[in-house]
User: Fold these one by one.
Assistant:
Number 1:
Amino acid sequence: MSARAASLCLLCRGAKGLCGKPVCPVLALWRAVESAKPPSGLLLEGSSPPSVFVGRVGYPRVRLAPAAPPEVGDTSAYDAPERWLELGLGKVLEMRLSLVRGVTAVDVRRPRGLEELQLLAVSSRPVDVELKFAKPPKPGARLDLFAPPMGPAAPAERVRVLGDPKPPRPLEKAFYDTDMGAEEAVVYLYESGVPVSAIQRAFSVGALGTGRLRRLVPTRWSITAVDDIISRHLIERVKRLKPADRYLFFERKHEHNTFVALIAPGAWSYEWIEAWFPHTTWNPGATVEVEGDWEGYWGRTTYASLGGCYYAARLATAEYMLREGFQGTAVLIREIYEGFFLPIGVWFVRESVRALFRSRPERYDSLGEVLERLGRSTRLPLGVWLEKSALLGRMLRQERLEVWL
Amino acid sequence: MPLKFEFPDARDWRYLIESLQTVIEEANFIADAEGLRLRALDPSRIAMVDLYMPREVFELYEIDEERVRIGVNFDDLNKILKRAKAKDKILFQVEGGRLRVTLAGKAERTFSLPLIDVVGEELPLPKVTFDVTAKMVSDTLRDALKDAEMISDTARFVGEEKELKIVAKSDKGELEARFSLESGSLLEYEVKQPSTSSYSLEYLEDIVSKAYRISDLVTLEFSTNKPLSLTFDIAGGGVLRYFLAPRME
């Protein structure tokens, strides 16, 4: 495949049809994963973690699908990405592909009447449900760049909530407070300690926002919307902190990925660069594809071309700076190697970058030293980053006025 | 009342505040017997804004103390200024830790917002001697910078004997904008020594696209690998000036 086509894939990631083919050839490969075993029969009783999927195809008329595995018990880990890194990707896939969805059709503008499913989605513990299918679930999996993988699905004739959903207090408050705007509610929930994945679920089923304006939001969009809202809020606070006093370097190698972060003294700014090695999820070509996006102190006004990962990693970066009490210029780089070929969702980036920032940083006194360290950490040579990174370019070449004061 | 000043057109103040916002989100105005000043560095310490509004530009200017500091958040102030209608006058009053802003047209509306504590350092102006000085229509400069921004994030300013050039280059292509007295695109031009220097378009385009509304004319000064100065004259004797640190290529 030509370099041009490969870079198209990286920008499209199966979402935009940039190559003109009716079905994404990369995703088609993974129809092979459609081996996940569906339950036999038309009735499934199980404990929903909870998990409710909102589709984006046909928007604003989309699919709404509560999901449960064919087992009863504590399934909470099945929909809690915050816990997945330690379980390993194999186990996560196994759990996710056992989730069976009962698909119904809804109009995102009419969330009324869905209260039972909304309450299910905001529950803090698994809820027993009974899914009655119109026809037996087809074997197969649903893979998505943004949302975690999902198992088999079938149209639902009836969805019964058997258990008693228990939302955490803050979510209960936000759910019943129809004067609280959606953005305000997201920030409130985050500040109250509700996990990001639970906020995303609530956001997605239209459980948040001002009364009449509540909408269902496709899972894929809600994930990034929530990452964006929370991190914008955190960044405003980060910008009031003192600047970092040294150069920090973080490194994490995990599941065919390398994540590195370089934080330099200075005002808040952030950059996210991804390098996809050949034969990885979004790069079927034969050469390494590097794409990046960044924002300065004043933020950005357009959607980052790299999409969800940019915002998920920005959230983890802002969380780190706020925790440590300083602001800085952050350049994050991710290398994705051969062997990493399943699109598993943005959670992987959010949780990996969070883990990266939980590790102990190396400290350096000069830009030269930390760049040298960066060059030793990544498989691509330093020159690639110096050429691709807007912020490193600025650090190296941009003078400050102080020299003349 | 420690301080009170009135300006004939409220919208000019909106443009002014939006121009300051390209460099800083909040800052102190300092008022004394001579007039109003503001000087601040942006958080990355790459750009400086320096504003001077002598008392003569105001329709009314009364000060009871030697020096009054007005710390404001520009976003908050701008929300008020956006409510101004054409030909509204604007009156500022500082009293009791609050800034009262009155917009007076057909009706009179008074808003009030708390003054904030901005940690302000006393800053000197950059010490630079400029080898190239050019005066041009600010809209012309704005256009050239917009063109350059399509190509690159950096613009190179080249001051030759007869001609000023703004150059942008990248793998996307190349842009060269030329200005001279002869073609009429420069109104004044003086070169002590031919000079070349590069500046970040992220800052430059942002600044000029707001400040061109303050003044039809801009004076641009630079020297090789030294800061750039952009001066916008405000009718009546005020000055809005920016300094921008260079990029080394």
Note: Chain B touches chain A at residues 41-48, 123-128, 153, 200, 202, 225-227, 243-249 (CB under 8 Å).
Number 2:
Amino acid sequence: MNSSTSITSIESTIVALLRENDSKAMDLIYEHYSASIYGILCKMLPDEEMAQDVLQRSFIKVWKNATTYDASKGKLFTWLLNIARNTGLDQLKSKEIKHGTQNVTADKIVYIQDSQSHSKQNIDAIGIKTLLHKLSDEHRQLIELMYFQGYTQAEISAYIPLPLGTVKTKLRNAISQLRILFAN
Amino acid sequence: MDINAYINSGVLELYLLNQLTEQEGIEVEEMCKKYPEILAERIAIEEALESLAGSEQKRPPAFLKDVILNEINNHSRVSDVTGPRSMTSSSSTFYWAVAASVIGVITTLATFFFYSQTKDLKNQLSLLEQQTEISKNELAVFKNPDFKQINLAKVDSTKEIQTANIYWNKTSSEVFISWNNKDPLPSDKQYQLWAIVDGKPVDAGVFDISDSLQQMKRIANATAFAVTIEQKGGSATPTLSSMVVMGAI
């Protein structure tokens, strides 16, 4: 797949620039990942103003920790999103906004198809919307809570009556289902 | 080591969602280094999650990119010189500075706006007051039976000059002119009013076009009034060829 090759080469270019502390890396990161990260922050945080503030703080953190990124521990996007998610959770805590006040129904999620930065991923956003909706309610809810909103296992098991040990296998099943749907 | 059991436990997903303790995380990293199948599975999950995020993406407002990249560039410059500083406080300082400037600009504009509005209103008010004063004076002239109205007729009937009226109070010698002609004169010319006293023209003052009654020089005795066009400031003797209107008492 050509698109995944080009993603990989962009990713390795960015990683090389980060290692050299070259701020051009941040421009590229913004171009390629800000919309994906911002989309998640908007679901996680009560308003877009806060999402913008958190996006800004996250980019500063990424830049401050540029040389600490270790590709062997995970892909660049995983690292970026975890920084942004933690920054968002910290912000919620500092504003004493109770995590979980947001409505987590799937209907609330706004699917925005953006042709510019993620067309490279060769993804049909409408298709994925359908895919996400093809999951069972339980699987979809788990992905929304854990991936999009940053709930912990413990919070999930309190939120949905589920034994703590089963959360991770359910999550595994949910993501596996998603992967099967992607593959088709 | 049962690789499939490890993969199926869901620990890789939790690792990628940053939900493991530091120790548990290190274990996962060790496993990935040791078993290529586990690493491949981890990467496959990451790609799926990245695609999922891509499908839910939302473009941040356009201004944000410059704000963020400027701050990053400022940060690199400052840290080169003075070492690290808190970006959080710098970020909020930046916002406050922007907010303060915006408020400053708005306040200035508003002040200026209201200042000009007030000034306009004041000007309008003083204009109204002046007009009221003029109307009151005019009314006093018109109502006063001592004022005699003299109609001045145009001298050359082919010229489009309207008639004028003189209001003359013989007792007080006050003279007013109501000049209805709206045609402007060349800038070096002015109208001049003459009173014919004992058969000779006497200067009664110069005037310009005006909507209101204009007070002229006092004239005690007159048999007629006439208006000529003269050099600006008036002449000592009238230019008879430029006489426009005239009326006898």
Note: Confidence is low (pLDDT under 50) at residues 1-5, 101-124 of chain A.
